[in-house]
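look at this record:
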Amino acid sequence: MAASGDQISPSKKFKLVVFGATGRTGKEVVKQALDKGHHVTAIVRTPEKLNIQDKNLELVKGDACDVESFAAALEGKDAVLSSLGVYANIFNPTTFYAESMHAIMEGMKRHKIMRLVTVTSWCTQPGPNNSWFVEWILKPLFLNGVIRNMEVMEKMLENSDPSALNYTIVRPCRLMLGERSGNYKVEEGQCNTGTSGEITCADVAEFMLKTLESDEYDRKGFAIAGFSKRPMYRRCRALGTRVSYSEDKMACEERGNGPAPLKLVVFGGTGLTGKEVVKQALEKGYSVTSVVRSPEKAEIRHANLEVVKGDACDVESFASVVKGKDAVMSCLGVVASIFNPTTFYSESMHAILEGMRRCGMKRLVTMTAWCTQPGPNNRWLVDWFINPVLLNGMIKDMGTMERMLEQTEPESLDYTIVRPCGLFNGERTGNYKVEEGQCNTGTKYFITRADVAEFMLKTLESNEFNRKGFAVAGL
């Protein structure tokens, strides 16, 4: 089929080139394009990072800023889709967007490919509906290193020859992990009105592919955002009949057998708090499967402990070991800062929930931190200094992860969120206070990891902790 500006109709199968295929949105573009029966050539720097396999998928190692590294792979293709992105800030701005687009347009020109769809962001340029918060807070203080270069890239496309390029610029708001909802609004311009300010990567990918099916999107830019605060994450649906631990315990006691030993899956078992969870769970006679990236770091040895190598963000690496277990405990954590924020908490939880859904598991206990979201008892020092200045790179994503859990269906997930204050090593004291909500009152700013582990395991013994979040701190 000729490489041209012809539109891709839903009934036709075409040859697509995808840049940024190992990113969160890019993976969704690849997956959905393959689901539609299209042939996909993914240009990636690290092919092993794309864990999708399909007869219609071709992986090509290439650098988006070096046209010679990928130009040959564009021959005979029908359209290019780019969801490329990099991290930058006001102190470390990027030119990646303009440089990569210059190379991509050159490659397309060589092979006479006209159709291009690319992702940028809300409010890359001035617009009548631009959100004041984005314009005056997010852009100048946090996103300026990225947004400015996105604008340069957009102007490159706008100044291109209409007879040579049919582009569509897709401008999403805040991107979230999650399934396609179809519940989003598309408006030509810089920013959406009357929306939630969030959208799933899957919904963005769906719209990107949709723009190929009609010429109404040619040489225009569209803002896209979710309509409401409806659940952004897959609502897990129980596949089996397993009951919660407390229900199972009561049933066993009624039969005179005593409580059945729990079978737990622990993520973050080589971390300081995770080690305590594993140790104390084994002391209770539980069976523990510890999913870790580096098994050699697991110091505990026990007949009831199984150490499995897996990546918490890759469900395929651990899904099989979740089967037949009673509960998941997560003590995962990463180091991040305001200049180097993370999405690890939400990404790993998305994968963990998917693994649990596949196996029909309902019970989850996870650890976050004090004041991940607004609360009436939040300490001013935490809300106004520690979180925004020291922990902002982590706290924001912890909040995202918590909302993901809060938006699941009650019949499919029994979660407990444990929010400790400052953690330090030490023995179990039992001298701590637990309060439902974001922060403790009348307590210290510290608690031992052993006490946190004790409380995490305690939450499995009663339904009173289900689908709630609890702050915990030493007295």
